[in-house]
Amino acid sequence: MREIKTASTRVAYNTMIIYARMLITIGMSLYSTRLVLNALGASDYGIYNLVAGVIAMLSFLNVAMAASTQRYLSYHQGTGDYEMQKKIFTNSWILQIAIGLVLVFLFVVVNPFLFNGFLNIDPDKIFVAKAIYYFMSVSVFFSIISVPFSALLNAHENMSWIAVVNVIESVIKLLIALSLNWFIQTQRLIAYGILMVVLYIISFFMYTIYCLKKYKECSIKNYKIDKPLLKEITGFAGWNLYGALCGIGNSQGLTLILNVFFGTIVNAAYGVANQINGQLSFFSATMLRVLNPQIMISEGKNDRQRMLRLSMMASKFGFFFIAFIAIPVIFEMSAILKIWLKNVPEYAVEFCSLILIASMTQQLTFGLESAAQATGRIKIYQSVVGSILLFNLPIAYLLLKNGFSAYYVFVSAIIIQLFASAFRLFYLKIIAGLSVKEYFERVFLKEIIPVLMIVLSCWTITRNLDFKFRFFLTSIFSVIVFIFFIYYTGLCKDEKMLVNGMLKKIIKDKYSPKMI
């Protein structure tokens, strides 16, 4: 019982730390996007997002290895095997360096194919686009070799240092955005690419130096290659690799398809949509990041029931955390984009709204991915779910080829996310004994009333009132309504007790006498 209280306290502390970080970083990140878009212009900003999309698609190994490394580190924290944790870290570090070098080589090889007719870029901008491509390649290398360090921090549930690094990154991004006006127009895109490389290098050293000093299992001096372990991690990562490739292909692959049919201006709209989605998705991703180590540790301790309950909680709370902002934003999207960007790219309103709906759909069962990772049985999971998500690309191409408007691409993405959610439920029932009935009772049914009430609140305000900063009223009133109905109709009894415990702890820590 004491262990459960300790874990709950840690979850509560980490949740407060990360959400405090988000309050600081989201505003700076969104404002930085506005500054960058205005400084570069829609065309250059579209080029940057196009090249970044290509790089992200080619660097999917990074995502796969991050999930795999953290899974093994957290799982063996549950088993209490310190030596195994040390072996996992050192072998992951070796593997990541090799992957980084291979990817950089791959970037060089595919360069001629991308820029000799495949990408729809103004010939006058080809040189700049190639420069950005190489800058992004260097950024990806440093991002990849930092994976074992960030995975170690997550495995130790050290969200404090992650929050510090993220805040510093946001400050630097804001400074970069502000500095762009110092350069002449033709130099701004290249300057932006160089400065973003510097940011990735700074982030790498902040993670590396801290972990080397903080954790004993973090060592890059005395290493020994463990071939069986390396093979096991690589095999596990291989299936995560496929899932990551499909997930990134589903999102970033659309960048290429939209570029083929509409050019870089529509890529600018898609870039704005991804910025908003990325910032709001922090709320749900944070909940998963906080609970993920406990999900893995529970499985390592053979506590399957607790593991499944935490996965359900991750899905439900992740959905609530994105919905309470996404739904008001969808209703006020046009006004928000006009105030935020001033010059709103064509399709941006439709893209942003539909992408947020797709994200909320994904969150319905997203916590079950952590449950599948915890069991270690991910071959079929990643094969099927990844293939379902990737299927959006040929559908998008056919829709646009047959004259449908660009936003129909995202309507199909929402439908595909529903199919992926259905499979997650089916598969976890088979491999982990998940009760689909319990999932519906604890997750789906509990989400209905709060969502209906926040939608009704937003619809009532936007239907009957019209003034310049109406979105403030829409957001504040609808969020209050949403939180009220989440607490009284959206939480199960045990979840309400956990929330009450967290609130009591916050109040106690705030008002208790401090030792001098």
Structural write-up:
With 516 residues, the protein is mainly alpha-helical. The chain has two domains: 425 residues, no CATH class; 75 residues, no CATH class. The chain is 86% helix and 0% strand. The longest helix is centred in the first third of the chain and has 57 residues. The protein starts with a helix and ends in a 5-residue tail after the last helix. The N terminus is likely disordered.
Q: Which word captures the global form?
A: globular
Give the N-terminus to C-terminus distance in angstroms: 32 Å
Q: Work out the helix count.
A: 19
- Give the low-pLDDT segments: 1-6
Q: Strand percentage, roughly?
A: under 5%
| Total DSSP E strands | 0
Total individual domains: 2
Mean pLDDT across all residues, rounded? 79
Q: What is the radius of gyration?
A: 23 Å
What share of residues is helical?
over 70%
The main pleated sheet reads as: none
Order of helices and strands: HHHHHHHHHHHHHHHHHHH
The assigned structural class equals mainly alpha
What would you say about this model in short?
The protein is an all-alpha fold and 516 residues long.
Features:
516 residues; 2 domains; 86% helix; single chain; 0% strand; mainly alpha; disordered N terminus
Could you give the topology of this structure?
Layout: H1 2-58, H2 60-79, H3 82-118, H4 126-145, H5 147-155, H6 159-179, H7 188-214, H8 227-262, H9 264-300, H10 304-331, H11 333-341, H12 348-363, H13 367-375, H14 379-390, H15 392-401, H16 408-432, H17 436-464, H18 470-490, H19 493-511
Helix pairs in contact: 1-4, 1-6, 1-8, 1-9, 2-3, 2-5, 2-8, 2-9, 3-4, 3-5, 3-8, 4-7, 6-7, 8-9, 8-14, 8-15, 9-10, 9-12, 9-13, 10-12, 10-13, 10-17, 10-18, 12-16, 13-16, 14-16, 15-16, 17-18
